[in-house]
Protein backbone atom coordinates (compact mmCIF):
# COMPACT_ATOMS: atom_id res chain seq x y z
CA UNK A 1 0.00 0.00 0.00
CA UNK A 2 1.19 3.51 -0.79
CA UNK A 3 2.15 4.98 2.59
CA UNK A 4 1.11 8.48 1.51
CA UNK A 5 -2.30 7.32 0.33
CA UNK A 6 -5.10 9.82 1.04
CA UNK A 7 -7.84 8.34 3.20
CA UNK A 8 -11.04 9.43 4.84
CA UNK A 9 -11.24 9.66 8.63
CA UNK A 10 -12.26 6.00 8.83
CA UNK A 11 -9.18 5.01 6.82
CA UNK A 12 -10.85 4.29 3.52
CA UNK A 13 -8.67 5.21 0.48
CA UNK A 14 -10.01 8.23 -1.39
CA UNK A 15 -10.28 7.70 -5.11
CA UNK A 16 -10.93 11.28 -6.20
CA UNK A 17 -10.04 14.45 -4.26
CA UNK A 18 -10.57 16.73 -7.28
CA UNK A 19 -14.14 16.10 -8.50
CA UNK A 20 -17.37 15.60 -6.59
CA UNK A 21 -19.78 12.89 -7.62
CA UNK A 22 -22.57 14.13 -9.92
CA UNK A 23 -25.41 12.65 -11.88
CA UNK A 24 -24.11 13.45 -15.34
CA UNK A 25 -21.29 15.87 -16.16
CA UNK A 26 -23.42 18.93 -15.47
CA UNK A 27 -24.82 17.77 -12.12
CA UNK A 28 -26.72 17.78 -9.85
CA UNK A 29 -24.45 16.57 -7.00
CA UNK A 30 -25.05 13.34 -5.12
CA UNK A 31 -25.75 13.19 -1.39
CA UNK A 32 -24.04 9.80 -1.36
CA UNK A 33 -20.52 11.26 -1.85
CA UNK A 34 -19.11 10.56 1.65
CA UNK A 35 -15.69 12.14 1.09
CA UNK A 36 -17.24 15.41 -0.05
CA UNK A 37 -19.61 15.40 2.97
CA UNK A 38 -16.82 14.63 5.41
CA UNK A 39 -14.47 17.23 3.94
CA UNK A 40 -17.06 19.99 4.05
CA UNK A 41 -18.46 19.05 7.44
CA UNK A 42 -14.99 19.16 9.00
CA UNK A 43 -14.20 22.43 7.30
CA UNK A 44 -17.47 23.94 8.55
CA UNK A 45 -16.31 23.32 12.13
CA UNK A 46 -12.66 24.33 11.89
CA UNK A 47 -13.03 27.64 13.66
CA UNK A 48 -13.29 27.58 17.42
CA UNK A 49 -14.26 30.61 19.49
CA UNK A 50 -11.38 33.01 19.86
CA UNK A 51 -10.20 34.08 23.29
CA UNK A 52 -12.48 36.83 24.59
CA UNK A 53 -9.35 38.91 25.24
CA UNK A 54 -5.83 38.35 23.92
CA UNK A 55 -7.17 36.67 20.77
CA UNK A 56 -4.10 37.44 18.62
CA UNK A 57 -0.97 35.72 19.84
CA UNK A 58 2.24 33.84 19.23
CA UNK A 59 3.74 31.00 21.23
CA UNK A 60 6.96 29.05 21.73
CA UNK A 61 8.36 26.28 23.88
CA UNK A 62 11.42 26.70 26.05
CA UNK A 63 13.10 26.13 29.36
CA UNK A 64 13.36 27.83 32.72
CA UNK A 65 16.63 27.38 34.60
CA UNK A 66 17.13 28.29 38.26
CA UNK A 67 20.19 30.49 38.84
CA UNK A 68 19.63 31.57 42.46
CA UNK A 69 18.41 29.73 45.52
CA UNK A 70 15.02 30.96 46.76
CA UNK A 71 14.06 27.68 48.45
CA UNK A 72 13.98 29.43 51.85
CA UNK A 73 10.79 31.20 50.67
CA UNK A 74 9.01 28.49 48.70
CA UNK A 75 8.87 24.74 48.63
CA UNK A 76 7.84 24.77 44.97
CA UNK A 77 9.84 22.04 43.30
CA UNK A 78 10.55 24.21 40.24
CA UNK A 79 12.78 26.39 42.49
CA UNK A 80 14.26 23.53 44.57
CA UNK A 81 17.90 23.87 43.48
CA UNK A 82 20.25 25.97 41.40
CA UNK A 83 20.63 24.54 37.90
CA UNK A 84 17.20 22.86 37.88
CA UNK A 85 15.69 23.07 34.39
CA UNK A 86 11.96 22.97 33.63
CA UNK A 87 10.22 22.85 30.30
CA UNK A 88 7.73 25.59 29.59
CA UNK A 89 5.43 27.06 26.96
CA UNK A 90 4.88 30.80 26.57
CA UNK A 91 2.19 32.66 24.63
CA UNK A 92 2.43 36.37 23.93
CA UNK A 93 -0.54 38.37 22.73
CA UNK A 94 -2.14 41.73 22.16
CA UNK A 95 -5.29 42.33 24.18
CA UNK A 96 -8.01 44.20 22.35
CA UNK A 97 -7.72 43.07 18.74
CA UNK A 98 -9.41 40.01 17.29
CA UNK A 99 -7.57 36.94 16.03
CA UNK A 100 -6.64 38.65 12.75
CA UNK A 101 -5.57 41.97 14.26
CA UNK A 102 -2.22 43.55 13.41
CA UNK A 103 0.56 42.89 15.91
CA UNK A 104 2.13 46.35 16.05
CA UNK A 105 -0.83 48.07 17.73
CA UNK A 106 -0.71 50.33 20.76
CA UNK A 107 -1.95 47.97 23.45
CA UNK A 108 -0.86 45.97 26.45
CA UNK A 109 0.90 42.71 25.55
CA UNK A 110 0.03 39.41 27.25
CA UNK A 111 2.91 37.32 28.60
CA UNK A 112 1.47 33.94 29.61
CA UNK A 113 3.80 31.22 30.89
CA UNK A 114 3.09 27.56 31.54
CA UNK A 115 5.79 25.72 33.49
CA UNK A 116 5.55 21.92 33.25
CA UNK A 117 6.96 21.19 36.72
CA UNK A 118 7.42 17.72 38.19
CA UNK A 119 4.64 18.59 40.66
CA UNK A 120 2.08 19.92 38.19
CA UNK A 121 1.64 22.80 35.79
CA UNK A 122 2.22 26.31 37.08
CA UNK A 123 0.70 29.04 34.90
CA UNK A 124 1.92 32.59 35.43
CA UNK A 125 -0.48 34.53 33.22
CA UNK A 126 0.96 38.02 33.11
CA UNK A 127 1.29 41.10 30.94
CA UNK A 128 4.13 43.37 29.85
CA UNK A 129 3.14 45.93 32.48
CA UNK A 130 3.35 45.67 36.28
CA UNK A 131 -0.11 47.21 36.86
CA UNK A 132 -3.58 47.12 35.32
CA UNK A 133 -6.50 49.47 34.60
CA UNK A 134 -8.72 48.05 37.33
CA UNK A 135 -8.66 46.94 40.91
CA UNK A 136 -12.12 45.35 40.96
CA UNK A 137 -12.87 42.39 38.65
CA UNK A 138 -16.53 43.35 38.37
CA UNK A 139 -15.40 46.05 35.92
CA UNK A 140 -13.50 43.70 33.58
CA UNK A 141 -16.38 43.00 31.16
CA UNK A 142 -17.06 46.77 30.99
CA UNK A 143 -13.41 47.46 30.18
CA UNK A 144 -13.58 45.05 27.31
CA UNK A 145 -16.89 46.29 26.01
CA UNK A 146 -15.41 49.81 26.06
CA UNK A 147 -12.23 48.97 24.18
CA UNK A 148 -13.67 46.46 21.69
CA UNK A 149 -16.15 47.25 18.89
CA UNK A 150 -19.12 49.54 19.42
CA UNK A 151 -22.39 47.59 19.22
CA UNK A 152 -23.95 50.10 16.78
CA UNK A 153 -21.10 51.07 14.46
CA UNK A 154 -19.16 47.80 14.78
CA UNK A 155 -16.02 49.93 14.94
CA UNK A 156 -13.52 50.50 17.70
CA UNK A 157 -14.47 53.74 19.41
CA UNK A 158 -11.95 56.12 20.97
CA UNK A 159 -14.89 57.86 22.61
CA UNK A 160 -16.11 54.70 24.41
CA UNK A 161 -12.57 53.72 25.29
CA UNK A 162 -11.60 57.07 26.83
CA UNK A 163 -14.99 57.75 28.40
CA UNK A 164 -14.55 54.55 30.40
CA UNK A 165 -10.84 54.94 31.20
CA UNK A 166 -11.22 58.52 32.36
CA UNK A 167 -14.08 57.57 34.68
CA UNK A 168 -11.76 55.19 36.54
CA UNK A 169 -9.12 57.34 38.19
CA UNK A 170 -7.20 54.22 39.26
CA UNK A 171 -6.67 53.44 35.55
CA UNK A 172 -4.37 56.44 34.98
CA UNK A 173 -1.24 54.52 35.96
CA UNK A 174 -1.86 51.84 33.32
CA UNK A 175 -3.12 54.43 30.79
CA UNK A 176 0.12 56.41 31.21
CA UNK A 177 2.23 53.31 30.55
CA UNK A 178 0.13 52.38 27.51
CA UNK A 179 0.45 55.90 26.04
CA UNK A 180 4.19 56.07 26.82
CA UNK A 181 6.84 54.95 24.30
CA UNK A 182 6.51 51.44 25.81
CA UNK A 183 2.91 51.23 24.53
CA UNK A 184 4.06 49.62 21.27
CA UNK A 185 6.93 47.17 21.81
CA UNK A 186 9.11 46.54 18.75
CA UNK A 187 8.43 42.83 19.23
CA UNK A 188 7.55 40.32 21.93
CA UNK A 189 11.26 39.70 22.43
CA UNK A 190 11.92 43.30 23.38
CA UNK A 191 9.58 43.77 26.31
CA UNK A 192 9.54 42.84 29.98
CA UNK A 193 6.93 40.54 31.52
CA UNK A 194 5.23 40.82 34.88
CA UNK A 195 3.09 38.49 36.97
CA UNK A 196 1.55 41.86 37.98
CA UNK A 197 -0.53 40.52 40.89
CA UNK A 198 0.80 39.76 44.31
CA UNK A 199 1.07 35.99 44.74
CA UNK A 200 2.26 34.01 47.75
CA UNK A 201 5.13 31.67 48.43
CA UNK A 202 5.05 29.24 51.33
CA UNK A 203 8.08 27.35 52.57
CA UNK A 204 8.61 23.89 54.06
CA UNK A 205 7.47 25.20 57.48
CA UNK A 206 4.32 26.69 55.92
CA UNK A 207 5.54 30.27 56.33
CA UNK A 208 3.98 32.63 53.80
CA UNK A 209 5.77 35.43 51.93
CA UNK A 210 4.05 37.71 49.42
CA UNK A 211 5.77 37.79 46.04
CA UNK A 212 5.67 39.65 42.73
CA UNK A 213 7.27 38.18 39.59
CA UNK A 214 9.22 40.13 36.96
CA UNK A 215 10.67 38.89 33.65
CA UNK A 216 13.37 41.24 32.41
CA UNK A 217 14.12 41.04 28.70
CA UNK A 218 17.75 40.25 27.92
CA UNK A 219 17.21 41.50 24.35
CA UNK A 220 16.78 45.03 25.72
CA UNK A 221 13.68 47.22 25.57
CA UNK A 222 12.92 48.41 22.04
CA UNK A 223 9.74 50.23 21.05
CA UNK A 224 7.97 51.55 17.97
CA UNK A 225 6.66 55.06 17.51
CA UNK A 226 3.10 55.46 16.18
CA UNK A 227 4.54 56.36 12.77
CA UNK A 228 6.89 53.37 12.68
CA UNK A 229 4.06 51.05 13.73
CA UNK A 230 1.76 52.43 11.04
CA UNK A 231 4.43 51.86 8.39
CA UNK A 232 4.96 48.28 9.57
CA UNK A 233 1.24 47.46 9.77
CA UNK A 234 0.66 48.70 6.23
CA UNK A 235 3.06 45.99 5.02
CA UNK A 236 3.00 43.32 7.71
CA UNK A 237 0.21 42.57 10.17
CA UNK A 238 2.20 39.66 11.67
CA UNK A 239 5.37 41.55 12.63
CA UNK A 240 5.59 40.13 16.19
CA UNK A 241 4.80 36.58 15.07
CA UNK A 242 7.42 36.86 12.33
CA UNK A 243 10.05 38.28 14.66
CA UNK A 244 9.60 35.56 17.29
CA UNK A 245 9.32 32.69 14.82
CA UNK A 246 12.34 33.76 12.77
CA UNK A 247 14.54 34.47 15.80
CA UNK A 248 13.90 30.95 17.10
CA UNK A 249 14.37 29.38 13.64
CA UNK A 250 17.75 31.12 13.42
CA UNK A 251 18.84 29.84 16.84
CA UNK A 252 18.71 33.36 18.26
CA UNK A 253 16.80 32.24 21.34
CA UNK A 254 15.13 35.05 23.31
CA UNK A 255 15.78 35.10 27.05
CA UNK A 256 14.36 36.80 30.10
CA UNK A 257 15.71 37.01 33.65
CA UNK A 258 13.12 36.13 36.27
CA UNK A 259 13.31 38.35 39.33
CA UNK A 260 11.06 38.57 42.39
CA UNK A 261 10.08 41.10 45.01
CA UNK A 262 9.31 39.66 48.43
CA UNK A 263 7.21 41.10 51.27
CA UNK A 264 6.60 39.44 54.64
CA UNK A 265 3.08 39.17 56.04
CA UNK A 266 4.13 41.62 58.80
CA UNK A 267 5.45 44.17 56.29
CA UNK A 268 2.23 43.89 54.29
CA UNK A 269 0.19 44.99 57.31
CA UNK A 270 1.93 48.35 57.53
CA UNK A 271 3.11 49.09 53.98
CA UNK A 272 2.03 52.55 52.84
CA UNK A 273 0.09 51.16 49.89
CA UNK A 274 -2.29 48.22 49.73
CA UNK A 275 0.11 45.48 48.56
CA UNK A 276 -2.81 43.71 46.85
CA UNK A 277 -3.88 46.68 44.72
CA UNK A 278 -3.16 45.79 41.07
CA UNK A 279 -3.12 49.45 40.02
CA UNK A 280 0.01 50.09 42.11
CA UNK A 281 3.60 48.85 42.16
CA UNK A 282 5.73 48.00 45.17
CA UNK A 283 8.61 50.48 45.07
CA UNK A 284 11.88 48.75 44.26
CA UNK A 285 13.73 50.72 46.91
CA UNK A 286 11.33 49.29 49.53
CA UNK A 287 11.28 45.76 48.07
CA UNK A 288 14.34 45.15 45.89
CA UNK A 289 14.50 42.64 43.05
CA UNK A 290 16.09 39.23 43.64
CA UNK A 291 17.37 37.12 40.75
CA UNK A 292 15.75 33.70 40.33
CA UNK A 293 16.44 32.20 36.92
CA UNK A 294 16.47 32.42 33.15
CA UNK A 295 13.56 31.80 30.82
CA UNK A 296 14.63 30.86 27.28
CA UNK A 297 12.39 30.19 24.28
CA UNK A 298 14.04 27.76 21.89
CA UNK A 299 11.45 25.74 19.96
CA UNK A 300 8.71 26.85 17.60
CA UNK A 301 5.47 24.88 17.85
CA UNK A 302 5.14 22.45 14.99
CA UNK A 303 1.46 23.27 14.54
CA UNK A 304 0.00 26.64 15.49
CA UNK A 305 -3.56 25.50 16.14
CA UNK A 306 -2.56 22.43 18.15
CA UNK A 307 -0.26 24.23 20.54
CA UNK A 308 -0.95 27.96 20.46
CA UNK A 309 -4.66 28.28 19.70
CA UNK A 310 -5.51 25.38 22.00
CA UNK A 311 -3.25 26.52 24.83
CA UNK A 312 -5.21 27.18 28.00
CA UNK A 313 -3.46 29.30 30.63
CA UNK A 314 -5.20 29.66 33.96
CA UNK A 315 -4.06 31.66 37.01
CA UNK A 316 -5.83 28.92 39.02
CA UNK A 317 -3.01 26.53 37.99
CA UNK A 318 -0.56 26.84 40.86
CA UNK A 319 1.72 24.24 42.38
CA UNK A 320 2.63 23.43 45.96
CA UNK A 321 4.71 26.30 47.38
CA UNK A 322 2.97 29.00 45.29
CA UNK A 323 -0.45 30.41 46.17
CA UNK A 324 -2.79 33.33 45.61
CA UNK A 325 -3.30 36.55 47.55
CA UNK A 326 -6.30 38.64 48.57
CA UNK A 327 -5.93 40.72 45.36
CA UNK A 328 -9.56 40.97 44.19
CA UNK A 329 -8.53 41.04 40.54
CA UNK A 330 -6.58 37.83 40.90
CA UNK A 331 -9.51 36.27 42.73
CA UNK A 332 -11.83 37.27 39.87
CA UNK A 333 -9.45 35.75 37.31
CA UNK A 334 -9.42 32.46 39.20
CA UNK A 335 -12.99 31.88 38.05
CA UNK A 336 -12.89 33.38 34.57
CA UNK A 337 -10.14 31.46 32.76
CA UNK A 338 -11.26 27.86 33.34
CA UNK A 339 -14.82 28.95 32.66
CA UNK A 340 -13.79 30.57 29.35
CA UNK A 341 -11.76 27.50 28.39
CA UNK A 342 -14.59 25.08 29.12
CA UNK A 343 -16.57 27.10 26.58
CA UNK A 344 -13.71 27.71 24.10
CA UNK A 345 -12.08 24.26 24.16
CA UNK A 346 -14.37 22.01 26.18
CA UNK A 347 -14.42 20.46 29.62
CA UNK A 348 -11.46 18.19 28.83
CA UNK A 349 -9.14 20.98 27.65
CA UNK A 350 -6.49 19.88 30.12
CA UNK A 351 -6.11 16.65 28.11
CA UNK A 352 -4.90 18.58 25.05
CA UNK A 353 -1.15 17.85 24.80
CA UNK A 354 0.03 21.46 25.24
CA UNK A 355 -2.01 21.75 28.43
CA UNK A 356 -1.43 18.31 29.91
CA UNK A 357 0.77 18.04 33.02
CA UNK A 358 4.06 16.24 32.39
CA UNK A 359 3.93 14.59 35.85
CA UNK A 360 1.58 11.80 36.97
CA UNK A 361 -1.89 13.18 37.70
CA UNK A 362 -5.28 11.85 38.70
CA UNK A 363 -8.32 14.03 39.39
CA UNK A 364 -11.24 11.54 39.36
CA UNK A 365 -12.94 13.73 36.77
CA UNK A 366 -14.55 11.45 34.20
CA UNK A 367 -16.32 11.57 30.89
CA UNK A 368 -17.34 14.80 29.17
CA UNK A 369 -17.04 15.69 25.50
CA UNK A 370 -13.84 14.79 23.66
CA UNK A 371 -12.46 12.47 26.31
CA UNK A 372 -9.63 10.86 24.37
CA UNK A 373 -7.18 9.68 27.01
CA UNK A 374 -8.74 6.40 28.17
CA UNK A 375 -10.76 8.12 30.91
CA UNK A 376 -8.74 6.44 33.73
CA UNK A 377 -9.76 3.02 32.42
CA UNK A 378 -11.12 0.56 34.98
CA UNK A 379 -9.90 2.46 38.05
CA UNK A 380 -12.34 3.54 40.77
CA UNK A 381 -14.17 6.77 40.06
CA UNK A 382 -14.84 7.80 43.69
CA UNK A 383 -12.95 8.71 46.83
CA UNK A 384 -12.80 7.70 49.69
CA UNK A 385 -12.52 4.09 48.61
CA UNK A 386 -11.27 0.92 50.25
CA UNK A 387 -8.78 0.08 47.51
CA UNK A 388 -6.03 2.54 48.30
CA UNK A 389 -6.61 4.52 45.14
CA UNK A 390 -5.64 8.21 44.81
CA UNK A 391 -6.13 10.00 48.13
CA UNK A 392 -5.87 13.64 49.08
CA UNK A 393 -2.84 14.69 51.11
CA UNK A 394 -3.37 17.07 54.06
CA UNK A 395 0.38 17.76 54.34
CA UNK A 396 0.03 19.80 51.17
CA UNK A 397 -2.26 22.39 52.76
CA UNK A 398 -1.35 26.04 52.51
CA UNK A 399 -0.89 28.14 55.65
CA UNK A 400 -4.20 29.61 56.92
CA UNK A 401 -4.88 33.17 55.83
CA UNK A 402 -6.37 35.67 58.30
CA UNK A 403 -9.13 37.73 56.75
CA UNK A 404 -9.89 41.21 57.96
CA UNK A 405 -13.52 42.18 58.03
CA UNK A 406 -17.19 41.49 57.52
CA UNK A 407 -18.48 40.50 54.08
CA UNK A 408 -19.77 43.52 52.11
CA UNK A 409 -19.58 45.19 48.68
CA UNK A 410 -16.93 47.69 49.78
CA UNK A 411 -16.42 50.80 47.66
CA UNK A 412 -12.64 50.87 47.83
CA UNK A 413 -12.67 54.58 46.86
CA UNK A 414 -13.95 55.35 50.37
CA UNK A 415 -10.86 53.69 51.87
CA UNK A 416 -8.09 54.45 49.36
CA UNK A 417 -8.39 57.44 47.07
CA UNK A 418 -4.72 57.77 46.18
CA UNK A 419 -5.00 57.20 42.45
CA UNK A 420 -2.47 59.72 41.27
CA UNK A 421 0.77 59.43 43.28
CA UNK A 422 2.23 56.61 41.20
CA UNK A 423 1.24 57.94 37.76
CA UNK A 424 2.75 61.28 38.88
CA UNK A 425 6.01 59.59 39.87
CA UNK A 426 6.05 57.69 36.58
CA UNK A 427 5.56 60.93 34.65
CA UNK A 428 8.40 62.66 36.53
CA UNK A 429 10.71 59.67 35.94
CA UNK A 430 10.38 60.07 32.15
CA UNK A 431 12.79 62.12 30.04
CA UNK A 432 11.35 65.35 28.59
CA UNK A 433 11.29 63.66 25.19
CA UNK A 434 9.33 60.65 26.49
CA UNK A 435 6.90 62.98 28.27
CA UNK A 436 6.27 64.82 25.02
CA UNK A 437 5.80 61.54 23.12
CA UNK A 438 3.39 60.28 25.79
CA UNK A 439 1.25 63.41 25.39
CA UNK A 440 1.30 63.17 21.59
CA UNK A 441 0.43 59.46 21.67
CA UNK A 442 -2.44 60.29 24.02
CA UNK A 443 -3.78 62.98 21.68
CA UNK A 444 -3.65 60.63 18.68
CA UNK A 445 -5.29 57.82 20.66
CA UNK A 446 -8.07 60.09 21.95
CA UNK A 447 -8.84 61.00 18.35
CA UNK A 448 -12.36 62.30 17.95
CA UNK A 449 -13.44 61.73 21.58
CA UNK A 450 -15.86 64.34 22.86
CA UNK A 451 -14.39 67.50 24.35
CA UNK A 452 -15.66 66.81 27.88
CA UNK A 453 -13.82 63.45 27.87
CA UNK A 454 -10.60 65.10 26.74
CA UNK A 455 -11.04 67.72 29.45
CA UNK A 456 -11.66 65.04 32.06
CA UNK A 457 -8.45 63.29 31.04
CA UNK A 458 -6.51 66.53 31.25
CA UNK A 459 -7.84 66.98 34.81
CA UNK A 460 -6.87 63.41 35.77
CA UNK A 461 -3.37 63.94 34.40
CA UNK A 462 -3.10 67.29 36.19
CA UNK A 463 -3.94 65.62 39.52
CA UNK A 464 -0.94 63.33 38.86
CA UNK A 465 1.24 66.29 37.86
CA UNK A 466 0.16 69.70 36.54
CA UNK A 467 2.82 69.46 33.82
CA UNK A 468 1.31 66.19 32.64
CA UNK A 469 -2.12 67.84 32.40
CA UNK A 470 -0.67 70.84 30.58
CA UNK A 471 1.28 68.59 28.17
CA UNK A 472 -1.80 66.56 27.27
CA UNK A 473 -3.94 69.72 26.86
CA UNK A 474 -1.35 71.20 24.53
CA UNK A 475 -1.09 68.00 22.47
CA UNK A 476 -4.89 67.85 22.26
CA UNK A 477 -4.99 71.53 21.27
CA UNK A 478 -7.41 72.45 24.09
CA UNK A 479 -7.23 75.13 26.78
CA UNK A 480 -5.73 73.81 30.04
CA UNK A 481 -7.42 76.30 32.39
CA UNK A 482 -10.81 75.72 30.79
CA UNK A 483 -10.31 71.95 31.12
CA UNK A 484 -9.72 72.31 34.87
CA UNK A 485 -13.06 74.10 35.29
CA UNK A 486 -15.12 72.31 32.66
CA UNK A 487 -18.49 70.74 33.46
CA UNK A 488 -18.49 66.94 33.55
CA UNK A 489 -21.79 65.19 32.75
CA UNK A 490 -20.72 62.14 34.75
CA UNK A 491 -20.02 64.14 37.95
CA UNK A 492 -17.46 61.55 39.06
CA UNK A 493 -17.62 61.15 42.82
CA UNK A 494 -13.84 61.11 43.19
CA UNK A 495 -13.44 64.51 41.48
CA UNK A 496 -12.97 66.98 44.36
CA UNK A 497 -15.45 69.36 42.67
CA UNK A 498 -18.27 66.84 42.85
CA UNK A 499 -17.43 64.84 45.98
CA UNK A 500 -20.11 64.98 48.65
C1 LIG B 1 -6.84 35.99 28.61
C2 LIG B 1 -10.28 37.21 31.77
C3 LIG B 1 -7.24 40.33 33.90
C4 LIG B 1 -3.63 38.48 31.29
C5 LIG B 1 -8.06 36.08 29.25
C6 LIG B 1 -9.24 35.34 28.92
C7 LIG B 1 -10.19 35.68 29.81
C8 LIG B 1 -9.63 36.64 30.71
C9 LIG B 1 -11.61 35.13 29.88
C10 LIG B 1 -9.35 34.31 27.80
C11 LIG B 1 -8.93 32.96 28.34
C12 LIG B 1 -9.00 31.85 27.33
O1 LIG B 1 -9.96 31.80 26.55
O2 LIG B 1 -8.08 30.99 27.34
C13 LIG B 1 -9.76 38.14 32.65
C14 LIG B 1 -10.46 38.74 33.76
C15 LIG B 1 -9.60 39.63 34.35
C16 LIG B 1 -8.35 39.58 33.61
C17 LIG B 1 -11.88 38.41 34.17
C18 LIG B 1 -9.79 40.53 35.54
C19 LIG B 1 -10.72 40.39 36.44
C20 LIG B 1 -5.98 40.06 33.43
C21 LIG B 1 -4.77 40.58 33.98
C22 LIG B 1 -3.74 40.03 33.26
C23 LIG B 1 -4.34 39.19 32.23
C24 LIG B 1 -4.69 41.52 35.18
C25 LIG B 1 -2.27 40.19 33.42
C26 LIG B 1 -1.68 40.54 34.55
C27 LIG B 1 -4.21 37.66 30.34
C28 LIG B 1 -3.44 36.99 29.31
C29 LIG B 1 -4.36 36.27 28.55
C30 LIG B 1 -5.68 36.52 29.11
C31 LIG B 1 -1.93 37.05 29.11
C32 LIG B 1 -4.05 35.41 27.33
C33 LIG B 1 -3.61 34.03 27.78
C34 LIG B 1 -3.20 33.23 26.58
O3 LIG B 1 -2.18 33.58 25.96
O4 LIG B 1 -3.89 32.26 26.25
N1 LIG B 1 -8.33 36.88 30.34
N2 LIG B 1 -8.49 38.68 32.58
N3 LIG B 1 -5.69 39.24 32.37
N4 LIG B 1 -5.54 37.37 30.19
FE1 LIG B 1 -7.00 38.00 31.36
UniProtKB/TrEMBL annotation:
Q: Which SUPFAM superfamilies match?
A: Heme-dependent catalase-like
Q: Which cofactor does it need?
A: heme
Keyword entries, A-Z: Heme, Hydrogen peroxide, Iron, Metal-binding, Oxidoreductase, Peroxidase
> What is the reaction catalyzed?
2 H2O2 = O2 + 2 H2O
Locate the residues binding heme: 337
| Enzyme Commission (EC) number | 1.11.1.6
Oxidoreductase as a keyword?
yes
Biological process GO terms, please? hydrogen peroxide catabolic process; response to hydrogen peroxide
Query: Basic and acidic residues compositional bias: what residue ranges?
Result: 389-400
Q: Which intervals hold domain Catalase core?
A: 7-391
Q: Which domain of life is it from?
A: Bacteria
Q: Which PROSITE patterns match?
A: CATALASE_1, CATALASE_2, CATALASE_3
Looking up InterPro entries in the UniProt record yields:
Catalase, Catalase_3, Catalase_AS, Catalase_clade1/3, Catalase_core, Catalase_haem_BS, Catalase_immune_responsive, Catalase_sf
GO molecular function annotation? catalase activity; heme binding; metal ion binding
User: Which family would the database say this protein is a member of?
Assistant: Belongs to the catalase family.
What's this protein's name?
Catalase
**Originating species:** Coprobacter secundus subsp. similis
Q: Which gene encodes it?
A: katA
Amino acid sequence: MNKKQLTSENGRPIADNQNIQTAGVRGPAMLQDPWFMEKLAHFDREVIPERRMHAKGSGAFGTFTVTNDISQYTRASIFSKIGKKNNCFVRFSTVAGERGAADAERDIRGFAMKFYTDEGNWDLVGNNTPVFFLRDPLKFPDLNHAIKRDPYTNMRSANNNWDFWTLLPEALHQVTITMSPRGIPFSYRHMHGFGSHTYSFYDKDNKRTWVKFHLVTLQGIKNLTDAEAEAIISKDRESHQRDLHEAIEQGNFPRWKMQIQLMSEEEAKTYKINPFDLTKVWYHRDFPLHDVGILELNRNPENYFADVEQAAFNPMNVVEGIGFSPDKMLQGRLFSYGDAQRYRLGVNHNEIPVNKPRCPFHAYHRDGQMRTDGNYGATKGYEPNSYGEWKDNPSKKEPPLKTNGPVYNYDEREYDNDYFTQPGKLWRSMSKEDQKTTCENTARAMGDSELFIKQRHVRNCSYADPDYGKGVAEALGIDYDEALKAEDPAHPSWDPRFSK
